[in-house]
Amino acid sequence: MNWLREPDAEPIAGYRLVSPLGTGGFGEVWKCIAPGNIYKAIKFVYGNLNSLDGDAYRAEQEKKALQQIKEVRHPFVLSIERIDEVEGELAIVMELADRSLHDLFAEYQDQGRAGIPRDELLGYMRDAADGLDYLNERHSLQHVDVKPRNLFLFGNRVKVADFGLVKNLERHSSSGLMAGVTPIYAPPETFGGKVSKFSDQYSLAIVYMELLVGKRPFNGKNIRTLALQHVGEAPDLTSLPARDRPIVARALAKSPEERFPSCTAFVRALIEADPRSVEFHLGTRTASESAPTVTLPGPAHSHEEISTSQLLGKTMAQIEVGILRPTLLIGLGSFGRRALLDLRCRLLDRFGDLSQVPIFRFLYIDSDPEAVHKALHEAPEVALSSTEVFPLPLQPVANYRRRALEHLNDWLPREKLYALPRSLQPQGSRALGRLAFHDNYLRFMTRLRRELQVATHPESLSQSVSQTGLSLHANTPQVYVLSSAGGGSSGFLTDLAYAVMRQMAQQHITVSPPTLFLFLGAPNDPATPKTEQANIYATLTELNHYSDPSTTFNGQYSADGQHFVDRAPPYAATYLMTLENRTPDAHRDAVAHLANYLNHELTTPLGSRLKLQRQGATGATSIFRSFGTQSIWFPRGLLLRAAARTVCDRLVQEWQHPELLGSTAEIDAVCARALTDRGLQWEQLSQQIERAAVSSEGTPSEIVARLLAEMTEEAGRPEVLNNPSIWAQHAVEQFEEWIGSRHTGAESSVLRRSRFSVLFMQATNTVAEEWEKLLMLQCAHLMDRPGRRLATAEEALRRMIAFCEEAARVQQSVVQQQHEIVRSSREQLRAAIEQCRGGGGLSRLFGGGGQRGLRQFLDQLKVFAYTRLGEDTLDAGVQFFQKLRGKLEERLSDLGFCRHRLRHLQEALAEPQQAAFSSHHGELSPVDSPYGGDVFGSIVQGNSTVHVVLPDGATTLEQASRQCVDQINADQYRRLDEVIQSLVLSPLGGLQLICQKNSDLDRLLSVPLIDQTTAFLGELLPMADVVEAEVATAHRKKRTLDEQISAFHRHAAPSVPAAGENNQQTYLLYPESDAGQQYVAAAQKVMPDVQLITGTNPVDLTICREQGFLLHSDLQPVLSLCRTAYFEFIAAPPQSPHARFDVQEWLPLEA
Prior knowledge:
With 1151 residues, this protein is α/β, with parallel strands linked by helices. Helix content is 51%, strand content 11%. The protein is elongated and about 135 Å long.
C-alpha cells in the first residue's frame, strides 16, 4: 500500500472516501462521494506501477485489462468512469452497485432456500449473457473470471464487472492464464494457457448451477484436483432439475466448439426448457433496456431441500462441525519467528502450498533487520514473504529531539531515550520495544486492516475450504500472538492487543480479544540473565494489571493523535510456557510444543473444544493458562514434499541430459514433416522471397517489367533513332541501378552490385525469421514431450542445420550455373549496343537498320534483365539457407543456455535453502537458519512433544523420502512428466519459452513443480494409521497399551501446572478407525475423565492437557528468581524493566 486510506480522505481530487466495501484478489474497493454528491465505487489495485520488482505485476495486469475494456459501453457491463494513478497506485472509479449475485444467493440460503429461484435467476443470467456476448462479438474479449461475486445487481438487473483478467481473443499470450483465474469456474482450455470465445459460457454454466441449487458440478478440494476434473471428468449435474441437465452439460463440454454458439444461446435454451419463464419473466426483456420495468416475482415452483452441508457461503459458527476460521498469527521477535516457521511447516504438511489457504494470515514483527532477513530466506515452502513481515525500525535520537519530545516524555524517561543503542534496536529494552511500536503505529494499523480483510474475504474462505477440505467454523477472525516475555518485543504486548481490537471495531467485526502464547524461557536456570528474568516478571505484571476490571489502558501514538482509552482485558487468555534448562534443544522443543498445539487448534475439532473451555473461564481471577501435548505424527505431507524435491531434481536432470535415449522415431517424424514442407522447395520459396522483397515501386519482377515497358515505348521516339547507341547505353545504366553493374559474387559493395540485392537481403532475413519460428515451433513440441527434452530438441535442430547446409550448397551450384548464363547474356547485350552504334544517321534514312538494332537491343536487354534478376533471386536462396542456418545455430546455443538455467534450477531443488540464501544475500548460509540446513528434517526430529512415525522403519525424513523415491518406476516418472507438462509448463508457454523469457526459474517453477509432484506422489503413498504404529511401539517396548497411554499422559503435562491439577482437562484426538476405537477403550481406563474427539486426519493421534486459569500462587515456583531480579532493577527507576513509566503503581502479581 502506498499511502494510508482513511474515511474522508481524497485520493483523487473531488472523490471523498466514505467506507471500505471489501478486498479482492487485485485490490480493495471503497465507497466514495464523487463531485455532485453522487456515490461511486473506487478500486485501489495492489502493487505500485513504479516498482522495479514483481510488486507491479497486479497493477500492470489490471491496467492492461482496463485499456481493453474502458471503451466498452453496454447496459449490462459495469462502466468505468475514470482511471488515475495515485503515487504509482492504480485507482479506478466505477458505478456503485447494490450488491452482487453472491450476496443475493446468501440471503436466499439464510431463508432456508437452496439458491435463487430459477425464474428470477434466469433473468439475471440473461443480462450477464448479453453483456458477455457483447464483449465477445463487438470487442473480441473474454472476461475469463465469471463468478457470482463479479455479477453486480443494480435494482433487478445485472452488470458484469471486475475485468482484471479480461483477454483479447486476437492476441496470443504465452504467459499462461491461471494466475488470478478462479479454478472453481475455470474452463478446461485455460489450464493449458488458452482462451476461446466460448470460455465465459463454461464459467457462466457453473455459476448458474451454483446459484440455483447450491452445488457445483466439480467437487475438487484443491487446484490440482479441480484442474484434472475440469479437463478430464464429466460434471456431476444430478442436483439440477432434469430439464436443465443436458443444456448445462453442453455448456460444460470439454471442447469449446461443442458448446452453445454464445452465452445468450445457452440461457435461451434454459428459458425454453420451461415456457413459463419466457411468458411471465423474460419475454419482454432486451439488451437495450437501461432500467428495470418489472419486478421479477418469486419462484413458480419449490425446490427440493438440500442438506446444510451443501449450502455454499454459510459461515455461521458450527461448534461441533466447523473447523476453519479466519486466523491472524502474529509472531514477535526471535521466538515468534521460529514459532511461525514451525507452525507453517506443520500446516504445509497438512494442506500443501499455504498461499492457497489465505484464511491463515501470518505477520512477523521485529526491529532486528537481520532477523527479518532470516525469516524471508528460509526454505521456500515455509519462508515468510515480504508481505508477511513488518519491520519496526527505531529512529536516531536526534529525530526524536526534533519531534514531539514532550509527548514521549509522558511515558518514556529521557534517560531511556538517550540510551538508544547505535544499532537502533531495543536490545532487550521493553521501553524501547514499545517506542518502536509507537513510531510505527499507523503503518501497523494499515497492515492489520489489510490482513483482517484478506482473511475474512469470502473468496479467501471459499478457497481455503476448497483447498483444505475442512468446513468453516465461523467467518469472524481470531488473532493469536506468539512472543517471548524476556525480550524487548514484550514491551508492546498490551498496545498490540488493544490495536487489534480497535481495528476489529473499525471494520465492524465482532470484537474478540486475541490469545497470547508467552514464552518465559528457563526462569529458574542460573544461566538466565537477570535482565531477562526482570523482563519476564514485568511483562506478567503489566498483563495482570490491565486485565483487572478496575484499570484502564491509555495510549496516544503521536503528539496530535487520538487519545485511546480501553477498559477491557487485552487478551482473552495468556498461555505460559517454560523450560527447565536453557539449552538449544530445550528451546527447539518449546517451539515445537507451541506449533503442535496451535496446529491442532486450527485444523482439528480440538480447537472448538478449547474455545469452549476458554469461554467457560470468563470471570476467572487469573488470565494465565498453560497446556501440554503429546502426539504421534506421521508427517506424510512433509515426506511427500521431501520426496518430491528429489523426484523433481531427477526429472529436471532428465530434461537436460545431453544424450538421447531410445528411439529417434519422433525426431525423424518431426524433421521429415518440417523439412519436406513444400514451402522449402525452391519453386515456392522463391515466390516467398519475391513477395517479401517488395518496395514502394513493387516486387523486383514488377519493376523489371515496368522498366522494359517504359524503354520499349521510349525507343520509338525520333531523338532515340537519331543516336540509338547513346540511348542504349543510357538504358543499360538505368537498368544497372536496379540489377547491378557487376555479376553476383564480384568484389564490390552491395549498392554497386544491385538495388535488388538490398531488397533480397532484407527479404531473405524476413523469410528466414518466419521459417525459424515455424521450425522452432516443431522443436518446442519436442521439448513438450516427456523425457530428455533438451537432447531431443538439440538433435532435431542439428538435423535442420545440416539440411540448411546441404540446401545452401546445392543452391550455390545452381547460382554458378546461372552466373555463366548471365555472363553470356551480358556479352550478347554488349554486341547489341555495338550494333546500335552502326545503326544511326544515314543508315536510318536508307534502310531502317537503326530500328532493327533497337529491337534487337531491347530483346537482348529483356533477356539480360531477367537472367540477372534470376541470378539475384537464386543468390537470395543461398542467403536464405545461410541465414536460417545461422538463426538455428543461435537457437541451438540458446538451448545450451536453457541447460544452464535448468542446472541452476536443479541445484535449487536439491539445496533449496542454500539457493535461497545465495540468490538473495551471498554472505549468508543455511547455518544462520534456526533449523540449520534442513528445515523439514529438524522439525520432524522426535522431541519431548511429538513422536514421529515414518514408513518402512525409516528413522529420518531423508531416509524415508529416499525409500519413497526408490519405489517410483519409469512408467510413473513418465506419467508425472506428462502431468507437469499439462498443469505447470503449458500454462506458462512451454519449457523453451520459460527458459528464454525468465531469468529466475527457481522462483517461477520450484513451487508449482513441487506442489504437482507432491500431489502425484500422494496417490502412490498410502495413508498410515498412527494408532497401529503406536500399538506396535508398545509391543516392541514390551509394554501394555495401558502402560503406553499412561506414559503418554505423563509426558503431556502442562509446563506450568496448577496445584493438584485443578482446572485441568484432558482431550484425546484420535483417528476414526478400528485401531482408534481400540485405543479409546484403553485410554478411558487410564484417563476416566478424558474427553474424546474424533479427528479428521488418520495420521494424527494427540493427547492435550489444557490447564485452566492459574492462580498467582501457582506461578510463584516458576517466578521466584524473576521476582527477585525484578525488585532489584525496579529500585533504580532508570533500570526499570517496565515498558512505560506513566503508570505510578502496578497491581502486584501476588495479589
